[in-house]
Amino acid sequence: MKFSPLYIIGLLVAAMCGFSACDDSVTTLGSSLITDNTEVVIDSTFTITGQSVENTDIPSRTTTQILGSLTAKEYGSFSSDFVTQFMPALSLDTTGTKAADIDSIKMLMFYTAGDFTGDSIVPMGLKVYPLTRQLPSPIYSDFDPKDYYDESNCWTPSTQIYTGNALYNDSLDAIGYRTVSVKLPLDFALKFYNEYITNPQTFATPEAFTQFFPGVYVKNTFGSGRVINFSQTRINLYYKQHSTYTKDGETRDTVYNRASAYMAVTPEVISNNIINMSLSQSLKQQVEGGDALLVAPASYDVKMTFPAKEMVDRFKRDGGELSVINTLTMSIPVETITNGYSINPPTDVLLVLSKDKDSFFANNKIADNETSFLATYNELTKTYDFTGMRPYIISLLTKETITADDYTFTLTPVNVVYETTSSSYYDSGTSYVTQIIPYVSGPAMCKLNLQNAKIKFTYSKQSIKNL
After folding, report:
1. How far apart are the C-alpha atoms of 342 and 116, rounded to whole Å?
2. Assign residue 248 a region: left if phi > 0, alpha if psi is -120 to 50, beta otherwise?
3. Is the pTM for the entire model greater than 0.85?
4. Structure confidence by residue, pLDDT tens digits, 341-392
């Protein structure tokens, strides 16, 4: 049997690739069949170092409200209340309705079934207070609401008791969400209705509406052992609507019972979780011993030194003028910390240059893969994997001097908001990151095994042979 020259060359290249290796080594793949020599260098000898740093003052403006408290000896004591403004409906249907037809008004807080940390059946209590003045902006997790509400003016004079399950109700258990409902004063409903009738411009913008109604402070007042993440909060008005209908030539009066969502928490308004955290002694001892722990919310980030200068120096020294950087990736092993409440590693983390962290969140930036990078926890491999770091290392090649600001990063837990677009009904759509905010989705913690992190730096170099 005869083989073509191209087939033989293909076998040789495949055989050479089969001998490549990339674990803690420098590997080159080359060819001498032509007059110049091309090598692919896979360098995985670089290491990173880091340590935990406090992160107790975070901008927690979010549409997710956290409420509750729990204590876990391996984690610490955590509690969260929240303050929030509301976005009003642009128009209200008042046809056939008068102030006397208003029955009640309620605040409804929705959460996905199971979206809580702790015990689902332990009874918890809350109180709701109307705010007396505008919330500040920016606002942080250590915000003190004492000057923003009147302790004597509580909308729930008796503590509202609630749990985190469906109380064995089969019809509720079948749906994917749960609701905590709080009845508010009828006087507020009447004030709200009359304002719309006499001054509809109050409802035209969030700014105008918050002048009329600054929002609420929701306070955890009773119980411990559960923290719930409310993904949606709105206020419903319940009322009667009078109408007529004609049957068999006869016009008759009828009354409908209506319920309408007249205001809700949206991204356009200020909503802030007031977080109180007391770390456990065991976590503090691990950090003091040098362990790199991520603890959230408002606890520990990890500050890391990335070997960028060493990479650039080696590339310039060994690569030559015709070299090209192919890829740069990093994988960080994660160890879970045993605890009694199933507190897991943060789902998403942001790696950002430390000097840019504050401005990243203040300016609502999105990870650009040059100075900031996102990674999602991989439950199968138990790692955070950063795969798109090539633009970062390329940007350093043109700098005359690389300083610590260029390679000192902070790894911090975040919540990521996605938006999905599709071109047709049959298109599953493409997801885009629209917002990255500091992590405020309940307790989370893990240990980063930095000494076993894998950095893979790949580049091609070419040298010309003189025949």
Report:
1. 10
2. left
3. no
4. 889 999 999 999 999 999 999 888 999 999 999 999 999 999 999 999 999 9
Q: How far is CA 260 from CA 91, 138, 205, 339, in A?
A: 11, 31, 19, 43
Helix (H, G, I), strand (E, B) or coil at 108: strand
**Contact indicator for 408, 353 with CB cutoff of 8 Å:** yes
> Encoding tokens for residue 322?
């015709």
H or E stretch covering 240: strand 232-247
Query: Side chain identity at 183, as an amino acid letter?
Result: K
Query: What one-letter code names the amino acid at 393?
Result: I
Q: How long is the chain? A: 467
**What does the pLDDT look like over 77-133, one tens digit per residue?**
999 999 999 999 877 777 888 888 999 999 999 998 888 888 888 899 999 999 999
What is the arrangement of strands in the sheet containing 177-184, beginning at the earlier edge strand? Answer: 87-88, 250-264, 232-247, 102-112, 177-184
User: Residue 301 is inside which H or E element, if any?
Assistant: strand 300-305
DSSP letter at 401 equals -
Question: How many C-beta atoms lie closer than 10 Å to residue 411's C-beta?
Answer: 26
Least Cα distance to 68 among 166, 180, 153, 158 occurs for 180
